[in-house]
Specification:
Aminopeptidase
Length: 188
């Protein structure tokens, strides 16, 4: 099977800024992504460790079908530095009628400590182009377990508004945690 590399719903599929690119999710990055997801399960809505078989099935049965869908429920991208995948994310839970979507992003676990803000900011600039200019969405939002307050600082620097705090909304390691939602509305 030749894995697709362009979303039919987008006019532009490659977004670049210097050494960084956001491209439709690449099949070759699937196992790196699996590794990062398994390492960072603590802040994801992932319930169990992914296997290579799980990842292969997800890419061939779910992800590959997103490329040709006229209104996919998610658009996933590989985030590249000098051509190497260092993160991935996308617009998920896309609501085409209300024109909103959730922003998703994780980066190489080794980059989080020193480059978290830089890569989140760079990624957001790309995903906003896709959401607002390409898809003409009205609103995008970040739904986050209250485990990484440094994320909120990045979002607020990028003009995201804190919309809600949902107290005791999820269980994390046997304890209830809040969920914090930030959003940005299109200026167009």
């Amino acid at each position: 099977m030749k894995f697709p590399n362009e979303y039919s719903v987008l006019d532009t599929n490659i977004f670049e800024n210097g050494r960084y690119k956001l491209v439709p999710i690449r099949y070759e990055d699937r196992f790196k992504i699996m590794e990062w997801r398994n390492e960072q399960m603590y802040h994801l809505r992932q319930k169990s460790t992914l296997t290579k078989e799980d990842q292969e099935t997800y890419f061939t049965k779910v992800v590959s079908n997103l490329f040709k869908a006229p209104k996919p429920d998610q658009l996933l991208f590989s985030y590249l530095e000098d051509g190497n995948c260092i993160g991935y994310g996308g617009l998920v839970h896309i609501n085409w009628e209300s024109r909103n979507a959730e922003v998703s992003f994780i980066m190489d676990t080794n980059l989080e400590k020193d480059y978290f803000e830089y890569h989140w900011s760079t990624y957001l600039s790309f995903i906003e182009q896709i959401a607002f200019s390409e898809l003409r969405l009205h609103k995008i939002f970040v739904y986050a377990f209250d485990l990484r307050p440094h994320l909120y600082e990045v979002l607020e620097k990028q003009q995201y508004t804190r919309d809600a705090r949902l107290p005791d909304h999820v269980i994390f390691q046997g304890e209830y945690k809040d969920v914090v939602i930030h959003s940005k509305i299109s200026s167009k």
